[in-house]
Amino acid sequence: MKLFDTIRLKESSDIMRKYLDFIIKGIYAGILIGMGGVAYLAISNKIVGSFIFSLGLLTVCIYSFNLYTGKVGYIVENKPSYMIELILSLIGNFIGTFLVGNMMRLTRFKGYGEAALEIVNTKLNDNILSIFILAMLCGIIMYLAVNNYKKEKDGIGKYIVIFMGVMAFILCGFEHCIANMFYFSIAGVFSLKVFGYLLVMVIGNSVGSIIIALYDKIYRNNK
What we know:
It contains 9 helices and no strands. It has one domain: Glycerol uptake facilitator protein (Up-down Bundle). 79% of the residues lie in helices and 0% in strands.
């Protein structure tokens, strides 16, 4: 009995360690996206700002951190247990962006919160259907950017697709749930409405990613 208890204890410990790893990698991803958001707010030129923001996603991909919007599309080729990794990654992403946003509010750059407030108000004054559609389109771009980065083994193309993808969703005004977590955090705006909108963004990003992932799985991989 003691042997079985020891084995069960070890298995439980391994599971908890794996779950903690998902959260930690999610926090790091959230921090990097938050830092990209800071850069975007700091630069008045939107094109340059969106280019620098791209470094956040590029670093996430290089270090294999857990960014929800970069992982959710792969749900179509994983077991149901993959949902746990996605949820824990999303929680980690929120923690990371929340930390960066609120730390910035304690620095001399707290004025960036006012710039973020304009972005936040635009989103909160939009309707739910619009938010969902814009989030879905962002999800499509995010899956394409991350998936092409993974498939492209060598060459500059794998890096270009990351920069182009991020710049596209920012300049088009599409809704990225993790980036928006940062904007809400640095603006200091949280309410039931905010969390409701974030949920719609999460769902929209997920649907967009899964739509393209299903195409890959059903059509492209069967040719």
